[in-house]
Hints:
The protein is an all-alpha fold. Helices cover 17% and strands 0% of the residues. The chain is built from 1 helix and no strands. It has one helix at 5-15. The chain is elongated. 0% of the residues are buried. The mean pLDDT is 77.
Amino acid sequence: MWVSAGDRALWEELIGEKTLLPVTPASEEDDVTTFAEQELDRSCREGKEGWFVSDGRPIRDLDL
């Protein structure tokens, strides 16, 4: 939940303890950002009925 710094300080004052912020895990050496190197589909489908896939990856077997 997002709260203002002032509200957080007031809460810490009221309960008498400071809550440490979560630590962001360090990125691992094998973390890789991938992309499909395919042209983006920028066509507008506003107002068209149906379900459209804008991702070139295969559709997973989902019950929609």
